[in-house]
Design a protein that fits this description.
Blueprint lengths: L5 H7 L2 H10 L14 H8 L2 H9 L14 H8 L2 H9 L14 H8 L2 H9 L14 H8 L2 H8 L16 H7 L3 H9 L20 H10 L2
Helix pairs in contact: 1-3, 3-4, 3-5, 5-6, 5-7, 7-8, 7-9, 9-11, 10-12, 11-12, 12-13
Amino acid sequence: MSIGSVYETAYKGDFNQVKVKIDQNASLAKTPDSNGRLLLHWAALGGNENLVDYLINCGSNVDAVDDTSATPLILASSAGRYEVVRLLIGKGANVNHKTNRGQSSLHYACSKGHLEVTKLLLETGANINESDVLGATPLHRAATQGRNNIVELILSRSDVKVDLCDSTGSTALHLACEEDREATASMLVRSGSKVDNKNKEGKTPLDLCSVKLRKILTELLF
């Protein structure tokens, strides 16, 4: 096996093959590939908990960043690798580290619909109101995608700010209405999101609704 393919082996979770390579060359545990990713990044993305643990014990930095400033925790969160996420946090990974686009592990977990990972991140100190370079919060991401179980979880938290605006001046409710996410929009209105906030184009959430959704939301207000 060439040095280049050992990263693919780590992604596939082949513990024994990776261990053989590191036994032959211990520096591999700290050697990045052409994208700045360590074996640890690939093992975290692939979801092999034992391999992740082994690589950390071999000296891999738990908060190492690739060329997008993504850490192993961000990659594991995006892929929904719950056990790896739990392990990395237990090893001291920074739950609020952000990529060069300002996206945290929580942004990715919410966007991809990984409920248990989202719960774990919130329980271990992830910033629920964190915004990325476009001003989008995890709630924006979940609402746009119609991740209703995650929206419900976020809205159950007392520290969530439901009407934060992204770079277009849109709240999560704007986005839910624009995407015609009936259940998401209804939850947001029940949680106090305002239907008359205007985005930078002067549009309110109700302006972006289908006729059916506008009727549903209007009835919730009375």
